[in-house]
């Protein structure tokens, strides 16, 4: 089961420097001090991180790194995958590049400038700087247009493993992509005397997408100013618990901070703007938000709709009581034969390597799996799964989130599948997450199947289970299936437990539905 969307290549690492203490009246624990001899240097990585979470930028500069969570094996593999994608992109697009291969930023920058002055067509992994800025664009492309260099100048190209668009139908680009290109264009203006009007993105399908940077100038400079203020200590910063925390090195530190203060951001989906709106009205803790539940009528807060405030108050009450509730009736089909369905994917290679099912008929349960022992066997596992489905009659499928349908829809375009069988399988399916999200509240920031089933007493055999961890097991297993049989069994056990966790949840929903609504 996927815990997060397919990842994209990480931005290049932000240089580490020591920083000055924050001017906050209550400084963050473990902060370091900054010396004036080490001025703040902004990179494209800061832009990426800032858009995810401003406080991550703050902690990366000021925080005590001994309190960081360790880097995962998946992150290291992801970085290697990003480099491999770049090399494949260069080969597929036929770019004849001059590659920078030096030690240290300064030496690489000197070589980059030498190649730019020499009029090299494409420069790969160059390094550029301007006052308080350092950039590492994937590619620099020589184009016509007068500059300090001559009758040409350079434009930045970034290579990404995902789509360039947040919404391709409307043409809306991913914000961090275009602002990182704007950052490189800003540095290039200072180096060559001409600011590129466009940048380019090589996407995961190796398409070259041109981006007009002019419409993003105002937003870029606003974000740059905000980052400068944050890194210099002019702006204050605090954690705000959200969905992006799951993949951050500071997640444990920030969760402890929020828990110690009963911070209102512990309430699910209560983001920074909404938290600010509550704080402006004197509500800083989950307890204070829950107290609004005793009021005859909820107050009106600018920036939060009445419906949203009602939901947040209900969640705060549940959070403090420590017991989940079913607040609206759910529709659960009554079928004797039930299927609890979960897949496992390896997101780096975009492989679906396991289809797992727990069949339940009355009191009897049986687990089945369709496993690809190598990426080459993905189609065989797919065919075996659909052969099994073709023999089913009068069944009800349960899964958690729409991820299974999304992945299987993509695979159906790659491999043969009876459209009628595919349609029937998902017509007879219920997304349990949809019911959880719409009709329940839980004393947890996360509504993942792991989080909600744990609150119902279910226990996984792994201490910290997750789809990314299982993907790493699979990567190791596929290298030598004969020698790594134990990893295969661990993956299957994890998948089986996800299916069993859904059974616990479904039965709880059915029981509460009967008790509260007589259904």
What does this structure look like?
This protein has helices at 44-52, 54-62, 73-93, 105-117, 175-192, 217-232, 251-261, 272-280, 286-291, 306-321, 378-390, 403-414, 419-427, 432-439, 449-455, 467-479, 485-517, and strands at residues 97-99, 122-124, 128-130, 133-135, 139-147, 150-159, 165-167, 172-173, 198-202, 208-212, 325-326, 337-346, 351-361, 364-371, 396-399, 429-431, 440-441. With 519 residues, the chain is of the alpha/beta class. Helix 15 crosses helix 17. It is globular, with a radius of gyration of 26 Å.
Pick out its properties.
globular, 17% strand, 519 residues, alpha/beta, 17 helices, five-stranded mixed β-sheet, six-stranded mixed β-sheet
Q: What distance lies between the first and last C-alpha atoms, to the nearest angstrom?
A: 30 Å
Low-confidence runs (pLDDT<50, min 5 residues)? 2-38
Major β-sheet annotation: 6 strands, mixed
Tally the helices: what do you get?
A: 17
Strand runs, count: 17
Strand order of the largest sheet: 1-2-5-6-9-10
Structure class = alpha/beta
Overall outline: globular
